[in-house]
Design brief:
Catalytic activity: 4-imidazolone-5-propanoate = trans-urocanate + H2O
Radius of gyration: 24 Å
Number of helices: 22
Shape: globular
Distance between the termini: 81 Å
Main location: cytoplasm
Pfam families: Urocanase, Urocanase_C, Urocanase_N
Binding site for NAD(+): 130-131, 208, 273, 400, 591
Protein name: Urocanate hydratase
Length: 669
């Protein structure tokens, strides 16, 4: 038992303590991960315990064994709750971290931001979002990693194996400080139950996209993408958002952004959520305007909002299927419809069956998983049936890349196209196919983000102004093809402060192409050099032009047959690693599910030096144009335009362009 209270810096440097901390009581006020199903055999349970105990000196094994056995039995995982630190978890200013390397200190800041209680979905289980998107599998891994980062110098690289810090290895100053992999399974071992099994064994984890790569910035990241999607969704159906209705579901780590985005876009948003705790959190945070628990009251409220053309976000505490069915019965016109529950994780809390209470569903999930699966699939069939009724009345429904259509099809729901073509198997498009792909990704626009490592709100304000000034200057000479994208992002950044989007670190996101990213980053670097602002961490969502191969989301608008390949994501992370990224990551899994996607990410620290200026230009240009090249080769019209423009501006870029084939020729021969 520890006799004295150590400082924050001393606790970081301590790593796994020589004297075990006291056992911690289970805090029921925190939103916890659901119990995972029991999937290990008796021999495998022994192996999971051996794997957990290897983090500790042998003298503690006898004491820890019953504790870890109980965690495995009670929660389906060994989280090592005892080792959860006593200090508050949040992104501290970079100077407060004990570190020999400023780059390492910035990574420590980002890790703690991912586990901030205001940011993380299940902070005590080290899960940031998506129900299973983990930064680490257990608290021993967290402690070891932070200790390694504190000890690291600028000629070492920390190697991370799915949450486990393998160790520090000699490298060089231009190498990444951290290399992260998550869930990189042999292909035949990427079924959902494989994740359950190998995660329970403690040998791999689901890093989601930005959780396991330390680049999650709270729901702001998805607020921006959702705002762009909703705005363009209404443009697509030629309706003004004002007074028109967007219906969806999910208020978790990512999906919680939907009502806020709806407000920024200016529509009426109804978002259903079954979890009372997370619904209340979103209400307390101001990310929803009202909470309603009665369907009749919901109908009355929506009718009033429509008649008065309100901009409002309403959370319905209950199942989304009930909402779709009730609105059909009440003849309420839904203009845009989607779903953002975590259907990449359908059997472990990502989607809940209708007509069963939240508590009973959680019990069924853990104790009768086969029945739970059956009920989920019944619900998916009913969900799809209700959506179909609305689309027959004119609703524009799109899949939000959460695997809704994929899982509904596997459940036998009526979601398949009557006239399928390559890439268009479903009745409804992915939002990437009709909105984000052709309007943004093909032109190189994607989620560029930054974090002010000083932690000062005034630094964020300064960076917002710098970014806005850069975009306005670029827009003066931008071609007509990208004027709308530029205008949307200038509008976004001007309203960013007023919309109070910061949760956790002082972070911002906007959609920019390679030119915008490089020029904004260079302007930041010059401001740091002049000591006008502190260090800045650059990054992006993996949900981008180039980082992710995902056939039902990011690359769903690739129609040359290559959407099931993962060459782009692998090349992305390799290319980023030797062009100057501070850390890189490559993951199996993400927003559409384990085994369904490969995605790569990066982080880059700007410190005001000439070296940083060189790195940012090399890496950001590649990070975007790798994806545009692939999309161009798939014959995407916007991407062909964008890569030709990039080659005109960069003489060292030479990309193979496709020769277009006349379809009539194929039909007549």
């Amino acid at each position: 038992m520890q006799k004295t209270t150590l400082s924050f810096k001393d606790q970081i440097l301590e790593g796994i303590p020589d004297i075990l901390p006291k056992l911690k009581s289970y805090d029921s006020s925190i939103n916890h991960a659901p119990k995972r199903k029991a999937i290990l055999s008796k021999e495998e349970e022994k192996l999971a315990l051996k794997n957990a105990l290897r983090y500790f000196d042998k003298k503690y094994h006898e004491e820890l064994l019953p504790e870890f056995k109980n965690e495995l039995k009670t929660y389906g995982r060994i989280y090592m709750y005892r080792l959860r630190p006593d200090y508050k978890m949040y992104a501290r200013p970079i100077e407060e971290y004990p570190a020999k390397s400023k780059q390492a200190a910035a990574i420590m800041l980002m890790i703690q931001n991912n586990l901030d209680y205001a940011v993380a979905q299940h902070p005590h289980e080290l899960i940031t979002y998506g129900g299973n998107g983990a930064v680490f599998s257990n608290w021993a891994q967290y402690r070891l990693t932070m200790k390694y980062l504190a000890e690291m110098n600028d000629e070492q690289t920390l190697v991370m194996y799915s949450g486990h810090p393998m160790g520090l290895f000699p490298s060089h100053k231009e190498a990444p400080r951290v290399v992260v992999t998550n869930g990189m399974m042999i292909p035949n071992y990427s079924k959902p139950d494989d994740w359950e099994k190998f995660n329970a064994l403690g040998v791999t984890q689901y890093g989601q996209m930005t959780a396991g790569s330390y680049m999650y910035i709270g729901p702001q990241g998805i607020v921006h993408g959702t705002t762009i999607t909703v705005l363009n969704g209404f443009r697509k159906i030629k309706k003004d958002p004002k007074g028109n209705l967007f219906v969806t579901s999910g208020l978790g780590g990512m999906s919680g952004a939907q009502p806020k985005a709806g407000n920024i876009a200016g529509c009426i948003t109804v978002c259903a959520e079954v979890n009372p705790k997370i619904t209340q959190v979103r209400l307390d945070q101001g990310w929803i305007d009202e909470k309603i628990t009665n369907l009749d009251k919901l109908v009355t409220r929506v009718k009033k909002a429509k008649s008065e053309k309100e901009t409002i976000s309403i959370a319905y505490l209950g199942n989304i299927v009930d909402v779709w069915e009730k609105f059909d019965e009440a003849n309420i016109q839904i203009d845009l419809g989607s779903d953002q529950t975590s259907l990449h994780n359908p059997w472990a809390g990502g989607y809940y069956p209708v007509d069963i209470s939240f508590e009973d569903a959680n019990e069924m999930m853990a104790n009768n998983p086969e029945l739970f699966k059956e009920k989920v699939q019944e619900t998916l069939r009913r969900h799809a049936k209700a959506i179909n009724k609305h689309t027959e009345k004119g609703t524009y429904f799109f899949d939000y890349g959460n695997a809704f259509l994929l899982e509904a099809s596997r459940a036998g729901a009526d979601v398949m196209s009557n006239n399928p073509s390559i890439g268009r198997e479903f009745k409804y498009p992915s939002y990437v196919q009709d909105i984000m792909g052709p309007m943004c990704f093909d032109y190189g626009f994607g989620p560029f983000r930054w974090v002010c490592a000083s932690g000062k709100p005034e630094d964020l304000l300064k960076t917002d102004k710098i970014a806005c000034d850069v975009l306005e200057e670029i827009m003066k000479d931008s071609p007509e093809e990208i004027q709308q994208q530029m205008a949307d992002n200038i509008q976004w950044i001007k309203g960013a402060q007023e919309n109070k989007l910061v949760v956790g670190s002082q972070a911002r996101i906007l959609y920019a192409d390679a030119e915008g990213r490089m020029k904004i980053a260079e302007a930041f670097n010059k401001a740091i050099e002049k000591e006008e602002i502190g260090y800045v961490v650059l990054g992006r969502d993996h949900h981008d032009v180039s980082g992710t191969d995902s056939p039902y989301r990011e690359t769903s608008n690739i129609y040359d047959g290559s959407r099931f390949t993962a060459d782009m994501a692998i090349h992305n992370v390799i290319g980023d690693s030797f062009r100057g990224a501070t850390w890189i990551s490559i993951h199996n899994g993400g927003g559409v599910g384990w085994g369904e996607v490969i995605n790569g990410g990066f982080g880059m620290v700007l410190d005001g030096t000439k070296e940083a200026s060189k790195r940012l230009k090399q890496m950001l240009f590649w990070d975007v144009n790798n994806g545009i090249s692939r999309r161009s080769w798939a014959r995407n019209e916007g991407a062909i335009f964008a890569i030709k423009r990039a080659m005109e501006n960069e003489p060292n870029l030479k990309v193979t362009l496709p020769n277009l084939v006349d379809d009539d020729l194929l039909e007549t021969n």
